[in-house]
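Continuing the series of single-chain predictions for the mutant panel. This is the parent chain; the variants come on the following pages.
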Amino acid sequence: MECEMPFKQSHSQNSEPGEIKHFEDRKVGLGKKVTLLRGISIIIGTIIGAGIFISPKGILKHSGSIGMSLVVWIACGLLSLFGALSYAELGTCIKKSGGHYTYILEAFGPQMAFIRLWADLIAIRPAAMAVISLAFGQYILEPLFMPCDIPPMAVKLATAIGITSVMYLNSMSVTWTARIQIILTFSKLLAISIIIVPGMYQLFKGETRNFENAFELSNMKLSGMPLAFYSGMYAYAGWFYLNFVTEEVDNPERTMPLAICISMAIVTSCYVLTNVAYYTVMTAEELLASEAVAVTFAEKMMGNFSIAVPFFVALSCYGSMNGGLFALSRMFFVASREGQLPEVLSMIHVRRHTPLAAVLILYPMTILQVFVGDIYSLLNFMSFLRWLFIGVVVLGLIYLRYTKPDLPRPFKVPLFIPVVFCLTCFFMVFLSLYSDPVNTGIGFAISLTGIPAYYIFIYFNHRPKWLQRALDSFNRTLQIILVVVPAE
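Parent structure:
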């Protein structure tokens, strides 16, 4: 990377969005390997993690009644669909990979985009990855240790093996990553149908006693409703992951909106029906008391078969790890191409055609957090930042409508959709500030460290000679070790 201002070069390199189309004839680059089915499996596979199997109770606890909790599940599905449709418009008019980062860069410029990238790199992504990986480690070992507790160190080791295998898979082949994602998504839907089908059978047999007085309002507190929505929106988070790999999507104008709509319809119906199935067997009190709701359900309905449930939950977590890493590596790849991260991250492996360095960048941070960090407090810092930035992206969509009205928009949503979604996001940010000012303040401070970092690493033309030399040798050494070259 030269000493000059990285942004001068970035737009000349990249002014042609979706430039990757000539990479089909085995040049070194990322091909268009994401078809409609693979796109759907990335979205569904990343949204449905462990939450629906373990803790659908956040919504029930805060909404106060069974009926209201189902209403919240449906409403959150609709709101997430609004967000996803807004992203579909952005993805079809800005045909670059990179998701949130790219859209903030296009709408609000490099500094804002770098702050988002910085928060992602040092905190949000490693913490989120570590949490879902720890759930994988916990559930994959559960059948072996039943009914005892699992030693914490064993969970961490299983987690580390899980993370390493996901990294290895993503480094080796884009095609195989996508194929395995499809298999994992089907296994997830199978696990959910194992819950839904017996539940529906119970319902049609007349097991409706838990639904009588479903809208009993005695327990409902208005102050709890926003928190119920917060839990619900968290359960649906992940609908934006296809936008991280736009350049690899085959025929994005058609594929992206279709994949997003089909996925959201499937996920919302799965979530709502799974909850209905739980309530046919458990009262609200039993559901709130349960440690892992799906296991309790399986014990009541299927006896010994319940041993298989933790295994399915582990597979589900693995699917989220795989889909999430596949998408996120593309964000670091694009940020490096825009000159905001070391150049080696936008290089492609000579034979395997995967962005090797961009895949591996999260590995040390994630492993560190699994073994050392206090992840859950980090997530508290970060969950509000996630909504803040998603709100900013959708605000960018509204802003681009006015500043660049003649951008080609093959897919266009009615204006009220992004407006409603944007207000929801900012409301959730305001809610975190109100309910947990200390953690939110710390999260805000972490992301603000991006401002000095931007000026030190990127903005100033004349870096000190020693820093430039160190960066150059770092890029060169990594390039030799990883056998990667710049995309042609």
